[in-house]
Amino acid sequence: MLADLPAIQGKRPDSKEEVWVAQALDRLKLRYIFQYEVITAGLRGGIIIDFLVLSPFSIPIEIMGEYWHTGEMGSDDKMRQAIIEQMIGNRVVNLWTLDLVDPETTYTVVRRELM
After folding, report:
1. Which H, E and C letters describe the chain, residue by residue?
2. Neighbours of 17 (CB within 10 A)
3. SS3 38
4. Is it the case that residue 87 has pLDDT exceeding 70?
5. Domains contained in the chain, CATH given
6. Is pLDDT at 68 greater than 60 in this prediction?
7. Distance (Å, rounded) from C-alpha 78 to C-alpha 105?
8. Which of 30, 54, 57, 108 is the most exposed place for a label (fewest CB within 10 A)?
9. What is the CA radius of gyration of the chain?
10. What confidence tier does 97 reach under pLDDT thresholds 50, 70, 90?
11. Residue 78 has what pLDDT?
């Protein structure tokens, strides 16, 4: 149940996978911002990414749910990703929920992708 999930940096996570990724980043001693506003969310077309890892370089992380496993990312999703990469100056790391089965596996995936 989402209400039972612990807050991340004072914000409510949308999934257990977000909690596990935050725990992995903490364990790796990487500084990050949870729910980072790339473009102000109050504006039309606002973009919030799941995580922005701050060290050693800014790395945007998105947690991709099963929705994207049913087929290729749509053109809107590809455009969003391109905007994020342009604004942040680094590629988006997509973490797939099917790969994030528990906290330890999530740690392994995050370490592999970021280290």
Report:
1. CHHHCCCECCECCCCHHHHHHHHHHHHCCCCEEEEEEEECCCCCCCEEEEEEECCCCCEEEEEECHHHHHCCCCHHHHHHHHHHHHHHCCCCEEEEHHHCCCHHHHHHHHHHHHC
2. 22
3. strand
4. yes
5. 18-114 (3.40.960.10)
6. no
7. 27
8. 57
9. 14
10. very high
11. 87
